[in-house]
């Protein structure tokens, strides 16, 4: 998506007066400016928000989504990369960022699969996300991709993590309908 020079200039101007307003103030559903930058893949704006204005990456909106989940869900791979690079510069590994759960038990890979963008899925996998990671309901990213009929995403996950591919397939369905990994 096109980012106008005006948007960048406005944020840079805001940075000069950052002590006079609350960058974490959320709008509808508690989404902050960083959530919106993530949703719309405004990577340059996201970088200004976190580096110059101090926007918090670990601030969930009222729906329980963090900016990294919004970026993954909305195929905002450029903004995801900004988040990863900034986190690494502050001593936060990609692995810990990619393992952050939202209130529904999604890690960013689950969100990327929901969004259906193969680039976002690939970035999550390259950043250390595991295809065997389960949501609170025990669904894995593989389960979600299969339900969506996203064969290319399933192929990508199995190709990039061949040693993990059997884990999501070994889940048992209990009479209550809940999946559970078998006990060895």
UniProtKB/TrEMBL annotation:
SMART domains: ANK (SM00248)
Stored InterPro entries: Ankyrin_rpt, Ankyrin_rpt-contain_sf
Source organism, top-level taxon: Eukaryota
Annotated keywords: ANK repeat, Repeat
ANK repeats: 104-136
Signal peptide positions on this chain: none
Pfam families in the record: Ank_2
Protein name: Uncharacterized protein
Organism of provenance: Mythimna separata
């Amino acid at each position: 998506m096109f980012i106008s020079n005006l948007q960048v200039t406005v944020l840079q101007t805001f940075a000069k007066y950052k002590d006079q307003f609350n960058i974490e103030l959320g709008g509808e559903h508690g989404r902050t400016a960083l959530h919106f930058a993530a949703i719309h893949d405004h990577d340059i704006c996201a970088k200004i928000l976190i580096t110059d204005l101090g926007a918090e990456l670990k601030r969930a909106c009222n729906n329980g989504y963090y900016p990294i989940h919004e970026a993954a869900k909305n195929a905002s791979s450029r903004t995801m990369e900004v988040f990863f690079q900034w986190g690494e510069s502050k001593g936060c590994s990609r692995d810990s960022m990619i393992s952050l759960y939202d209130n529904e038990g999604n890690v960013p890979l689950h969100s990327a699969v929901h969004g259906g963008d193969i680039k976002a899925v690939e970035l999550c996998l390259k950043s250390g996300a595991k295809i065997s990671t389960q949501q609170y309901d025990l669904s894995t990213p593989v389960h979600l991709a299969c339900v969506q009929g996203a064969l290319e995403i399933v192929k990508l996950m199995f190709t990039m993590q061949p040693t993990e591919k059997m884990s999501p397939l070994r889940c048992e369905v209990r009479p209550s309908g809940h999946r559970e990994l078998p006990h060895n």
